[in-house]
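Running this now, will post back.
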Amino acid sequence: GDAPRWLCVGRNEAGNEALKSLAGARDLLFETVDHPGPTALGRVFPGAPWDDAAVRSAAAFAASFSGKAVRHWTTTGRGIAVRIFSASGGICVLSVNQVRREAGWKEYAWTTAKEEIRAEARARAIEF
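Update: finished.
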C-alpha cells in the first residue's frame, strides 16, 4: 500500500548499535541470524502498521547487505534466516527466499532525510 514506511540500515557496528538504541517500542529491528550483516531499523508510524508483505520485503532488503548471506543464498538456494524483533521484546525469525534491493525502498541523501526528520519533529511539537 501507500502507508509511510521508513527503513534505515546500519553501515557498521557503531551504526547498528545506534539504531538499536533509537528503536521505539513499536519499531522493528532486522538482523541476519547465521551471517554477519547490518541491523536495520523499521520505523512504525501511528496508524500505519507494517503488514506481512512489508516485513518480508524489509527483511529481504536488510539481508541483501550481508555479503556472506547473499553468497549462501546464491550457492545453496536456501533461505536466509532474519531475526525480527522490537525494543518491547517480541521476536520472530523468518526465512527470506529471495534477496534483493527492493525497488520500493528508496535511498535518501542524509541532508534530505535530516530535513524530513526535523519537519516531522516540528509537526509533532505543534500537536502537543
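The CA atoms of residues 81 and 95 lie 4 Å apart. More later if anyone needs it.
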